[in-house]
Amino acid sequence: MKAFAHLVKTLDGTNKTNARVAALAAYFREAPDADKVWAIAILSHRRPPRPVNTRLLREWAAELAGIPLWLFEESYHIVGDLAETIALVAPIKQGPAGGTPSLARYLEDLIVLKGQPEEAKKAYLQKQWQQLDYYERFVFTKLFTGGFRIGISQKLMTRALSLATGIDPDVLAYRLMGGWDPSKTSFRSLVLEPQEEERDSRPYPFYLAYALEGEPEALGDPADWIMEHKWDGIRAQLIVRNRNLYLWSRGEELVTPSFPEFQALRDALPDGTVLDGEILPYPRGQVGSFNDLQKRLGRKTISKALLKNVPVILRAYDLLEWQGEDLRQQPFLNRNRLLTTLVAPLAGDPALPLDLSPALEIPGWDAVHKERGRSRDWRSEGLMLKKKDAPYQVGRKKGDWWKWKVAPLTVDAVLIYAMRGHGRRSNLFTDYTFAVWDEKTDGQRELVTFAKAYSGLTDAEFREVDAWIKKNTLERFGPVRSVTPTHVFEIAFEGIARSNRHKSGVATRFPRIVRWRKDKPIEEANTLADVVNLIP
């Protein structure tokens, strides 16, 4: 743990990429193999489930420090990070006998602790807090809260691991994909000599597009490009190898159990096939909303009713493996022709949840502008522009794949509730709930909540709104304050759909603040009818 805590401190103390890579590479050269595996797991978001909720952590830390809980909570709001607050207030008695245990030992303890009674968890945590120094205690507690984020991307980690091992970064990216368990995996089998039998289920690293910030004309000759719609679902790879089917999300989560209907493709697709595409809700034979798809997420078992009410399809747009051969270095146009040959005959079968994303030739850039304008009619977020000769690369690379999303929908809404933010904004009210006018048949109208947002304002604007909230609070509901309806903000969002879970009857996708409309009185904010009219 001491070496890993030192690594985290080094990474946290610099924003220079080369310095971060060098620190990671040094750790991967020198740390014990078991610690290396756990470090890779932590940095790629494969942490064990949290064994203790944060309420108990706060209570036990306050008790150990000998301070009332309210004082700990106030300190937490000022510091802005729970692990750092605990590291600051917990007293140190003496270091552990025999030295600080390894990172692997602490993570193994965390797994075992999950099934222990609360008293055992409390005794263990309070003992460790007293034995570790400040930064070790900070890192140790971060592991227990499950909120371990230090700004290290998968790409940067594989680059450092490549320096330490001499293995190509793209090879490492592939080896680290999938559902390996750090408590059961050795560094040798994961990184140095991966077992061949693990290959069956392993996906390829996803290729990600950059946002097109200017006009598409800047990309040159339109004849060099293919145009597709950017579908709003879950990016996924569907794998058929040795007559087994696996479904992986872009977040490297095996989601096969959540979508049992895809098992029908196990026998329809030839062995050695890997499709890249989008899982889309498909009620009544047409693309539904992302809100529909959310009903299917995170479920290990799917009821017959849910299967019937929220059917899904995979809309395929790339072929990464064909008859067991890795096609990623072939030009996109070649891969797409093979994909069409494979999928087109199957897409017409109503028993198979598969169809083909149309790849359109571009006669001129005017056609791209027109097609983007029809995106919402197609239930898409905009367009993808892919170079015909582009290989399928690893991670986010600039130049060959671009996403050109449609302009967001916007609504003017009234601020009515606020909560404190997180991290460096934990002492400011920066998380807001907004409302629009619901006009009644009797001529009366009331404000009804429709979206929450916490980004989009400058730091100075957040401080100004925070000061106003503290002076204009009407009621308090735990951490939430209701405020006098006074201020109008322009809210942008990517999509909107009907929802029975919200009082307004609508749910927005990716809402954020565009600007503070100081020029507009609340009477001129949008109505619920205006919002509903935006639903496609």
From TrEMBL:
- Please provide the record's keywords in A-Z order: ATP-binding, Cell cycle, Cell division, DNA damage, DNA recombination, DNA repair, DNA replication, Ligase, Magnesium, Metal-binding, Nucleotide-binding
Q: Which Gene3D superfamilies match?
A: DNA ligase, ATP-dependent, N-terminal domain, DNA ligase/mRNA capping enzyme, Nucleic acid-binding proteins
- Cross-referenced InterPro entries: ATP-dep_DNA_ligase, ATP_dep_DNA_lig_pp_1105_fam, DNA_ligase_ATP-dep_C, DNA_ligase_ATP-dep_cent, DNA_ligase_ATP-dep_CS, DNA_ligase_ATP-dep_N, DNA_ligase_N_sf, NA-bd_OB-fold
According to its UniProt record, which reaction does this protein catalyse? ATP + (deoxyribonucleotide)n-3'-hydroxyl + 5'-phospho-(deoxyribonucleotide)m = (deoxyribonucleotide)n+m + AMP + diphosphate
Give the transmembrane region(s).
none
- Where on the tree of life does the source sit, at the highest rank? Bacteria
The protein's GO terms of the molecular function aspect are: DNA ligase (ATP) activity
What's the name of the protein? DNA ligase (ATP)
Instruction: Name the source organism.
Output: Robiginitalea marina
